[in-house]
TrEMBL record:
Family according to the record: Belongs to the two pore domain potassium channel (TC 1.A.1.8) family.
Entry protein name: Potassium channel subfamily K member 17
GO molecular function terms noted in the UniProt entry: outward rectifier potassium channel activity; potassium ion leak channel activity
Domain of life: Eukaryota
InterPro entries: 2pore_dom_K_chnl (IPR003280), K_chnl_dom (IPR013099)
Entry GO terms, CC: plasma membrane
Bilayer topology: Multi-pass membrane protein
Localization of this protein: Membrane
Record flagged with keyword Ion transport: yes
Protein's UniProt keywords contain Kinase: no
Organism: Cuculus canorus (Common cuckoo)
Length: 191
């Protein structure tokens, strides 16, 4: 049993050997950093040494608040862009409420496409998941639930491009900011 546990910690699972996936190369480390500071915590990768765990704690203590500030700033920039578009439409077409509603609707649809509806197509291609599995992964990730039942870049039978985890890490940051805005609008509407 101890041999199995050691093998698992080394990257060998019953599904296959995942040590060739470069878990702690730059892209894997960047993805781990993003999942730590966003508090997603898939559970598939973690520090195994005392020094690594201490560093992770310190990194998270500073990284989580900084990430919240970053997400807030990204969200505010997105909101500012939406407000500027609405203002331009009001000026050009002399619309008042129509412009605001139209731009907010466009921003919602664009966000849905970029962060929830199109990424599952990429996951279907790169991971071999169904569209529904990709959509599930997208929502579970962006909402920071992060069960860990689906994690990108972990199939030892697939070859992943070098840009893949980095692009997904950026998608997570911007997608979380967008989803936070949507949740904020829902809260304001419900209140």
């Amino acid at each position: 049993l101890q041999g199995i546990i050691q093998a698992y910690k080394g990257g060998i699972t019953l599904q296959g050997n995942t040590t060739n996936l470069g878990r702690w190369d730059f892209t894997g480390s960047f993805f781990f950093s993003i999942s730590a500071v966003t508090t997603i915590g898939y559970g598939n990768l973690s520090p195994s040494t005392v020094a690594g765990r201490i560093f992770c704690i310190l990194f998270a203590l500073f990284g989580i608040p900084l990430n919240l500030v970053l997400l807030n700033e990204i969200g505010q920039l997105m909101l500012l862009g939406v407000q500027r578009c609405a203002h331009r439409l009001e000026e050009v077409f002399h619309w008042q409420k129509k412009a605001s509603f139209l731009v907010k609707t466009c921003a919602l649809v664009t966000g849905l496409l970029l962060f929830l509806l199109l990424p599952p197509l990429l996951f279907s291609d790169k991971e071999g998941w169904s569209y529904e599995e990709g959509f599930y992964y997208s929502f579970v990730t962006l909402s920071t639930i992060g069960f860990g039942d689906y994690v990108i870049g972990m199939n030892p039978d697939r070859t992943y491009p070098g840009w893949y985890k980095n692009v997904i890490s950026l998608w997570i940051l911007f997608g979380m900011a967008w989803l936070a805005l949507v949740i904020k609008f829902c809260i304001n509407f419900l209140e």
